[in-house]
Structure formats: structure tokens, C-alpha cells
Write a structure and sequence with these properties.
With 517 residues, the protein is α/β, with parallel strands linked by helices. It has two domains: 9-296, Rossmann fold, CATH 3.40.50; 311-477, 3-Layer(aba) Sandwich (Rossmann fold). The chain has 17 helices and 13 strands. A seven-stranded parallel sheet has the order 3-2-1-4-5-6-7, with helices on both faces. The protein starts with 8 loop residues before the first strand and ends in a 23-residue tail after the last helix.
């Protein structure tokens, strides 16, 4: 613990669409970190689609501030959120941002970025330099006025036109160009927002949320830590490939996302993975293996502990899950596995706890499939549960059917409760589940998943043995103390100059701010 007179080190914890406004595995991780690391103070930098008003968590005393950046709101965030800059300075920046300034000072920077991304003709150090130049420009000039300027639109169109000539088979519509420009506008928006000095920037994914960390690094040489949960770029590739975008837009978004991921790994002083599986992807996108360390998620085993099954379910073969209802959790496969189980165990009941509002269209698709397969009495989308430690005791087993994961909390929470898991083989699942603690199946294989559920529901002796082994494995490997001790060590090493190791690049010098503001 810090002495009364010793100032705590300050961490900027940067998230996208998760803590503290939404629940899920990353939010659970962030909440545990903030609650348990008493020697550090946290500022939460929350990037969301729109402005959020309701916290989903009771924040600990060492969370000192929340900086919220709604990327996709109708108005620029600075127009209705105070980021510490006096109003007259905001106005002055707009007044200074003339057509001549944009054309002469920013168009060359922006063109370098778009050309580099589209043609993949860059060294990652060049991308770093481009972002630094953009940040320096927006120290003095207004973001919205710049990005909506006619010269920016023109150069964006020209670069894409040149690209289309080289790629003769690619059809690019005016709508494609408009959507692409909109992406650049919104994804880059945080570069215009000032952040108070912090001792560490900690990003929770290797994507666009790196921008506030870059700002602190350019301005104060603040070290950057990234924790990789599910591999961001892998999940982006899955989502983009399944989208309805045109070929050009898919190609653009993939290239832009890959560029940013490489930048994250290049700039990070430490890359913390929640499993060993992620390392292959990280190295493939340029991460230095010497920067990578695995820190498994940890849970409070005194809270997640074996409990008696509720009386109303004691004679019902029950499968539980904690999962937000959206595509990556592949609830469709879970529903189909229930139909497989029902063929042999007619009164089986699946109870799925999780937010049904994350992707309403997907929830509707799941509800329609439940009706189509005649599973209304067997499969329940029960909605959000505010006491997750009580979920698992309702089931004889738990289930996870995701197509992508990091190191899922639901697996180790269930194991800690003495409830064995049937899971898909994704992320670091096999680093928690082995043949003594549960079953692992291929993603989307509802027949095999269903067969493994049947085996465990019918074999009480095996189920109990796996439950005991699961609890033991958590106690030995995945406790909250192990988790927080590891992060405390990393934070302390990052804030002790002699322990900082920046591989492959020199220390950045502090950039003096010559802004008129």
C-alpha cells in the first residue's frame, strides 16, 4: 500500500464499447483490475457508439474520472462534452482552420495516410510519424472543420480513383467513397481530444483505441501497455468478411484495421495476452515476441464457489450459459445443440443469461430459430443477470459455443463453481479445459456439442469428478490474487524508468506544444 504522502501512479485505461457502460468479459476484467489494484488510480477512457448515461458497475474509489468519447453520435463530441478546454479556445481553433490551412498543412498528411493504407506501401514507423503529424496539427486546428473541408474530400476521392485504376477489377461507387470517408472521420476523432498527463496508457484491444495512448506517448513519452483478449484483428476479419459491405469497403476496412493493429504492436512497450493462442496472431502482425507476456484472467474463488442446485431445477437436466446474445457467441449453434440433446433427453433445459439488446436483429433470429425447432420449453434467453456468481449453480453443466474468445471468464467462473463446461475450441479455452475438467468441440459443430452435453448430463459420476477437478484447477491457476499481482508487477515496471524496455525504437522525446491555444 502507498504511504499517506506518496502519490499514486495514474493509469489511463482505454476501452471500446465495454466498461463501465456495458457488461461482458472485458468489463469483468477491467472492473477486477480497478477494484483490486489499490496502489494505482484510474481514469477510464470509454469509446462508445453513442453517448452513454448509465453505468453498469459501482466504481471503486480509485477510479477518479471517466472520459467518454461517442464516436458515432450525430454531433462532434466536443460540442456537448467538456474535455477541459475553455470554450473560447474551441472557437479560436475553428476560426483558425481556414481552407488555406487545411490545403497546405493537413492535406499532405491525410493523403500520406490514405495512400499508405490503400496501397499497403508503408513502414510502420511511417504510420507512427503520420499520426504524430496529425496530432500536432490538431493541437492548433479544429477537427470537424478540417475533416469536412472540401479539399479533404477531394484528395480522398483522388486517391481512391488512382487506386481503382490500378485495381481494374474493383468497382468503386460514390456511396463507397462516402462511407469510406465517414469511417476515417469517426475512427480518427479521438486524436483531437486532449488528455491530462498519466503515467501509463493501458489499451484493452489492439485497434483504433490506441489513439489516446499515442497522444500521451507523443506528448509525455507515456509507456503503452496493451492487453489482448480475443485477438482484435482476427475478430475484425471475421466480422468484416460476414458483412454486407462492397468488396472495396471490405478491403479498405481490413487494410485500415490491419495497419492500426501493426501500429499498436509497434508502439506498445508491453503486450499482455490472456492466453498463449493469441501470440501466433500477434507475431504475424509484427509484434516483437520479447514484448509478449501471458497473464490469465482470474476470479474470486470465494464468490464463485460450489452451491446447491435450486430446488425448482433439481429434477431438470439443466445447461446454463452466460453470454451476450450476438454473433461471436454463436447462439445459433447453441440452439441447434439443444435440439440434438432433446432427441435423447426430452426435458432438457438450456438457460442463457446475457444482454439481449446488444444486436437486436441477431436476438430476433435466435428467437425465431427456437420457435422453428420447437424448443420453446427447452431453450430460454433469460436476459441479463446481475449476480453472475449464482448463474452456474442452476446448471448441471455450462456451455460456450463462441467462434472467437480470449480467455473466457464464463469458463473459469463455471469451473470455480464446480460445474464442468462443454465449450468450443477457441482462444485460450484449452488452456483452462482439459480432459479432466470438461469437453472441447470444434466451433459450429452442434452435433458433437450436443453429444458431449448428453454424455455429461447422463453420467453423474463423470460430471461430479470433472466438477471437482475444475474447482481444483482454478484454485491452482486462475485466482484473482494471481491475476492482480501480475498486473501490479507490470504497472510498477512500466513506471520505473530503469525497468522500461522499448524494443526496436528509440525513446520519444517530449514534443513541445506550439499551439496558439
Amino acid at each position: 500500500m502507498k504511504s499517506h504522502f506518496e502519490k499514486k501512479k495514474e493509469v489511463l485505461l482505454i476501452m471500446e464499447g465495454t466498461y463501465p457502460y456495458n457488461t461482458g468479459g472485458v468489463s469483468t476484467w477491467a472492473h477486477s483490475l480497478c477494484q483490486k489494484l489499490d496502489d494505482f488510480d484510474f481514469t477510464l477512457y470509454s469509446i462508445n457508439g453513442n453517448f452513454e448515461t448509465k453505468l453498469k458497475y459501482n466504481l471503486s474509489d480509485n477510479v477518479k474520472n471517466i472520459i467518454q468519447v461517442p464516436l458515432w453520435s450525430l454531433e462532434e463530441p466536443q460540442s456537448y462534452i467538456h474535455y477541459g478546454k475553455e470554450y473560447y479556445k474551441v472557437v479560436r481553433k475553428k476560426e483558425q482552420t481556414s481552407d488555406i490551412v487545411v490545403a497546405e498543412k493537413f492535406v499532405p498528411i491525410f493523403k500520406r495516410l490514405v495512400v499508405s493504407v490503400l496501397n499497403e506501401t508503408y513502414k510502420i514507423s511511417d504510420i507512427d510519424a503520420i499520426f504524430k503529424d496529425m496530432w500536432q496539427f490538431f493541437q492548433q486546428y479544429d477537427y470537424e472543420t478540417t475533416m469536412k473541408n472540401k479539399y479533404i474530400w477531394q484528395v480522398f476521392k483522388d486517391v481512391i480513383h488512382d487506386f481503382s485504376i490500378k485495381q481494374k477489377t474493383v468497382h468503386i461507387s460514390l456511396q463507397d467513397i462516402t462511407i469510406g470517408m465517414r469511417w476515417f472521420f469517426h475512427f480518427l476523432l479521438p486524436i483531437s481530444i486532449d488528455i491530462p498527463k498519466k503515467d501509463i496508457s493501458h489499451i484493452t484491444l489492439s485497434g483504433f483505441p490506441v489513439i489516446p495512448a499515442l497522444i500521451l506517448n507523443y506528448k509525455y513519452n507515456t509507456p503503452i501497455v496493451v492487453t489482448e483478449h480475443g485477438v482484435y484483428i482476427r475478430e475484425r476479419l471475421i466480422a468484416i468478411s460476414a458483412s454486407d459491405y462492397s468488396y472495396f469497403l471490405k478491403d479498405l476496412l481490413i487494410k485500415f484495421s490491419e495497419c492500426i493493429t501493426r501500429l499498436v504492436y509497434y508502439k506498445a512497450d508491453k503486450i499482455l495476452s490472456v492466453n498463449k493462442f493469441n501470440k501466433t496472431w500477434e507475431v504475424m502482425y509484427g509484434a516483437d515476441p520479447a514484448k509478449i507476456e501471458v497473464i490469465y484472467n482470474g476470479i474470486d474463488h470465494n464468490e464463485f464457489k460450489p452451491r446447491p442446485k435450486p430446488k425448482h431445477l433439481q429434477n431438470v437436466p439443466t445447461v446454463v450459459a452466460a453470454a451476450r446474445i450476438f454473433e461471436l457467441k454463436d447462439i445459433i449453434t447453441m440452439i441447434k445443440s439443444c435440439a440434438v440433446v432433446k432427441r435423447e433427453i426430452s426435458n432438457v433445459k438450456y438457460i442463457i443469461y446475457g444482454n439481449k439488446d446488444a444486436v437486436p436483429e441477431y436476438t430476433e433470429k435466435c428467437e425465431a430459430l427456437i420457435i422453428e425447432m420447437g424448443l420453446q420449453d427447452n431453450f430460454v434467453l433469460a436476459g441479463f443477470h446481475d449476480q453472475p456468481h449464482l448463474i452456474y449453480s442452476e446448471g448441471d453443466i455450462s456451455i460456450l459455443t463462441s467462434i472467437s474468445e480470449g480467455f473466457p471468464y464464463t469458463v473459469i467462473e463455471s469451473m470455480s463453481c464446480g460445474v464442468p463446461v462443454v465449450s468450443t475450441d477457441v482462444g485460450g479455452v484449452t488452456e483452462a479445459i482439459d480432459e479432466s475438467t470438461g469437453f472441447v468441440c470444434k466451433p459450429k459443430d452442434h452435433e458433437d456439442i450436443g453429444e458431449k452435453v448428453i454424455k455429461l448430463l447422463k453420467d453423474e459420476k463423470l460430471r461430479n469428478l470433472m466438477g471437482e477437478n475444475s474447482r481444483k484447477k482454478v484454485l491452482e491457476n486462475f485466482t484473482i490474487k494471481t491475476f492482480t499481482d501480475a498486473y501490479a508487477h507490470v504497472y510498477k515496471s512500466m513506471t520505473t524508468k530503469k525497468d522500461i524496455r522499448i524494443v526496436g525504437r528509440p525513446q520519444n522525446r517530449e514534443v513541445k506544444n506550439h499551439s496558439l491555444t
